[in-house]
Design goal:
Elements (H helix, E strand, L loop, with lengths): L11 H21 L1 H44 L3 H15 L3 H16 L3 H12 L7 H14 L3 H14 L3 H17 L3 H13 L8 H19 L1
Helix pairs in contact: 2-3, 2-4, 3-4, 4-5, 4-6, 5-6, 6-7, 7-8, 8-9, 9-10
């Protein structure tokens, strides 16, 4: 005897009515919210256009800044530092947010130092020197330390060098910063402080390093001066 399924099929007309009803409801909702949808789409289009414009603008700005910086570098390389200085100041003001603008800031600080304007170099180098994670942060910090030194502010110079020694990304940067700080210690007749910094340098240096002997000699000198003072 044949078996028949007990599941009833929905009438085709009922399915069609449901579909038509759904379409009508969607149409009514769309009509009611047409202005809202249009506004949302317009906002999205405006944002997309703004993003594209900003990308294009920054690209053009970067290219222009790079070209102008190359010209200023050529002037500085030729030895005309006063002219390079006059052009660097407005350049940094105009393109300071670009990569070339940051490089120009470093060059401006260096040029000011070379021209004997150490006090003016300090505020130029400070913004970049405050961010040691930026690839230009450490070079700017060394310039800042040099500017403090030239201005007779040894405590601030030493603090700047020691910050690089603590947070510099590369070993050679940390070593150079410790060496600069130790040099200041010697100048300020703090041989014991210099010896401590040379010990710190040697602690982080491989025994086979070719330059190790130089720092061992400096450490010995610092220790000898310390002993002489204590007698």
């Amino acid at each position: 005897m044949a078996r028949y399924s007990t599941v009833r099929q929905r009438p085709a007309s009922l399915n069609e009515d449901t579909f038509v009803s759904g379409v009508l409801e969607a149409t009514v909702w769309t009509r009611r919210h047409a202005m809202l949808l249009g506004g949302a789409i317009l906002v999205i289009l405006v944002i997309a256009a703004a993003v594209l414009y900003m990308r294009h603008y920054r690209s053009v700005l970067q290219a222009r800044a790079g070209g102008e910086l190359n010209q200023i570098r050529q002037i500085a390389t030729a030895g005309n530092l006063p002219l390079a200085l006059r052009q660097l100041k407005p350049f940094v003001s105009t393109f300071g947010s670009t990569r070339a603008g940051k490089e120009g800031r470093v060059l401006l600080a260096q040029t000011l130092l070379d021209q004997g304007s150490a006090s003016d170099a300090v505020p130029v180098a400070q913004p970049l020197a405050s961010d040691l994670d930026d690839p230009l942060g450490v070079p700017a910090a060394f310039l800042l330390g040099a500017a403090y030194e030239a201005s007779g502010k040894h405590d601030q110079a030493e603090a700047t060098y020691l910050r690089v020694a603590d947070k510099g990304r590369f070993e050679y940067q940390r070593r150079d910063a410790l060496e600069a700080a130790a040099r200041l210690k010697f100048q300020d007749n703090d041989a014991a402080g210099a010896a401590a910094l040379y010990q710190r340098i040697l602690k982080g240096m491989p025994d086979t390093a070719s330059i190790r002997q130089v720092f061992e000699m400096r450490l010995a000198e610092a220790q000898a001066r310390t002993a002489a003072v204590r007698r």
